[in-house]
Amino acid sequence: MSVTTQPTTFADLYTLVLNQVRSQTSQANTLSQAKRAVNMALQDMHIGTDYQFYWAEREAKLILQPDYSTGTLAITQGSTSVVGTDTLWNTAGLYGTNNIEVGWKIKVSGNETVYRVATITNDTTLTLDTAYVGTTVTVGTYNCFKDEYALPTDYLRPVDMRFFDDDHEIRLVDRRQLRRALPRNSVTGRPLFATQIELGPSGSTALRPRLVIAPPPDQVYSIPYNYITNLLAVSSAGVGQVNLSADDDEPIVPLRYRAAIYHYAMSMVYEHKDDGRQQSAVQQYQQIMQRTLSDVTVGDRRMRIEPSISSYTVRAERPYSGSSQHRRFDSNGRFDRLE
After folding, report:
1. Can you list the alpha helix ranges (DSSP code H) found in the chain?
2. Cα–Cα distance between 31 and 4 in angstroms, integer?
3. Closest listed residue to residue 263, CA positions, set 240, 297, 286
4. Percent of the chain predicted with pLDDT > 70
5. Pairwise CA distance, residues 154 & 228, whole Å
6. pLDDT(320) > 60
7. What's the confidence (pLDDT) of residue 49?
8. In whole angstroms, what is the distance from residue 84 CA to residue 138 CA?
9. Could you tell me if 135 and 69 are in contact, meaning their C-beta atoms sit under 8 angstroms apart?
10. What does the pLDDT look like over 81-136, one tens digit per residue?
11. Is residue 45 within 8 Å of 291, Cβ to Cβ?
12. Distance between CA atoms of 152 and 23, rounded to whole angstroms?
């Protein structure tokens, strides 16, 4: 690290912390604490303010799949096996995905219960996640739809907490509100509402955020949207990651704001000290963050006084028009008194 430049890499940041506390980088314990403090500072810096940081925003597009009801099916009461006739469940559609996939919902005509597809063997065979409780059907119609959609692996939260899409046509609502209003959510149509749920890990520690769409789409929709990423670091190869790990990793924070990470890390290092160093580090961090938030809100509407100048413009163009009290020139000082 150059001693005359802004801290850039992970090594720059944690070395700066070690130098400040006058510790050697060869001490493994202290080195680990400094690295941990930098990573914690990077994460905490974005808590509550991430929607204001343009560098954490990402763009994506969600393709909503139409429902599928081609052919007929047969299913026995108490069974999970479904057999189709003239169905193409495992065949790819126009947009590179199969007509039906694992996780889709299926509703057999004449039954109110909605089931989830657990497995798909081929075009005419699939299984449900729970036993079928309706009456046995030999030749029945059905409707299969998808109302849960996977979000990007780095998805943290939407940019706009009111609307999911850029066109502001899909309103975000509370999970409980959606469950109470549409407990089955099985009638397809144009999507109007959405909520975010978490399915939990499955085979790994990775979380599985899902977007629930209501009503389920009745045709293909292309939904552009923006979100906040949880990948706040980037490797020298340009690969996004959650934490800084290698010495040459860099935070996604623009270079001119990275000093805030250092000051926040110092506040953590001094957290259990009995002197004013921790408070001083916090104050320096807060000052930088105030300037940062003011700097990145490009185009933001701020409170300001904007006097109406239309009447003054008119009088300047036509100073002798109108009543005597509004003329540009007068003989009794009314204009100079702003009357």
Report:
1. 10-20, 28-45, 175-181, 259-269, 277-296, 310-317
2. 22
3. 286
4. 84
5. 8
6. no
7. 74
8. 10
9. no
10. 999 999 999 999 888 899 999 999 999 999 999 999 999 999 999 999 999 999 99
11. no
12. 41
Identity at 104, one-letter amino acid code: W
Q: Which residues of 168-194 are buried (b: 16+ CB within 10 A; e: fewer)?
A: eebebbeeeebeeebeebbebeebebb
Angle between helices 259-269 and 277-296 (to 10 degrees): 150
Residue pointed to by tokens 């914690």:
40
Write down the mean pLDDT value for the chain. 87
The SS3 assignment for 11 reads: helix
Please give the structure tokens belonging to residue 275.
């002197």
Which of 264, 262, 260, 254 is closest to 296 using CA atoms? 254
| Three-state secondary-structure class, residue 279 | helix
Cis (ω within 30 of 0) for the bond into 215? yes
Question: Which of 250, 222, 235, 261 shows the shortest CA–CA distance to 66?
Answer: 222
Beta bridge partners of 171: 163, 193
**For residue 28, what pLDDT is reported?**
81
Provide the residue ranges of all domains of the chain, joining segments of one domain with +: 10-46+255-293, 60-229
Pair 137, 218: CB distance under 8 Å: no
Q: Identify the pLDDT of residue 208.
A: 86
pLDDT, tens digit (0-9, with 9 covering 90-100), for 23-63: 666 678 889 999 999 999 999 999 877 667 999 999 999 99
Amino acid (1-letter code) at residue 239:
V
Cβ burial, residue 32 (10 Å; 0-12/13-18/19+): exposed
Handedness of CA 237, 243, 248, 250 (dihedral sign): positive
The structure's pTM equals 0.80
Give the DSSP H/E element, type plus range, for residue 158. strand 155-158
Residue with tokens 């189709």: 84
What mean pLDDT do residues 281-306 have? 76
